[in-house]
Design brief:
Radius of gyration: 14 Å
Strand order of the largest sheet: 1-3-4-5-2-7-6
Largest sheet: 7 strands, antiparallel
Helix content: 10-25%
Shape: globular
Number of strands: 7
Structural class: alpha+beta
Distance between the termini: 31 Å
Length: about 130
């Protein structure tokens, strides 16, 4: 049985030297399933007004889930830190592009495009990488 693949995340990103960063927007789906809206609300409250500060209480990371019975290419969006848990999944139409970024980037950061989507089934996220 395969393990979830974890990638360099926000902690590495914060330590990275200034440089050229690339960005890609994508949709996170399933954000209200199985009580996930509570994780989103907790995440928003833990970073409220503090985006891009040195010490976030919570952050998002991406984890490949090859053992997913519905889609072996699935990528989970997971909250770490003060709040913890699966927040949703990268939209299927974005999975290939996101995997390509994760395979070649040194480190990445995941942010919400804005906090207005919180509570919706789909939330727009932006992947920033170096």
């Amino acid at each position: 049985m395969g393990k979830t693949v974890k990638h360099n995340n926000l902690l590495s990103f914060k330590k990275a030297q200034e440089g050229d960063y690339k960005k890609m927007s994508f949709v996170c789906r399933g954000c209200t399933m199985r009580g996930r809206e509570q994780i989103w609300q907790g995440f928003i409250s833990s970073i409220a007004g503090k985006w891009d500060q040195e010490n976030d209480n919570s952050y998002m990371t991406l984890e490949e889930e090859p053992e997913n019975r519905y889609d072996p290419n699935a990528i989970m969006v997971v909250c770490r830190g003060e709040f913890f848990g699966t927040m949703g999944y990268v939209g299927k139409e974005y999975t290939k592009a996101v995997k390509e970024v994760l395979d070649r980037c040194e480190c990445y950061r995941l942010d919400m495009e804005d906090d207005k989507g919180c509570g919706n089934r789909e939330i727009n996220l932006v992947l920033i990488w170096k």
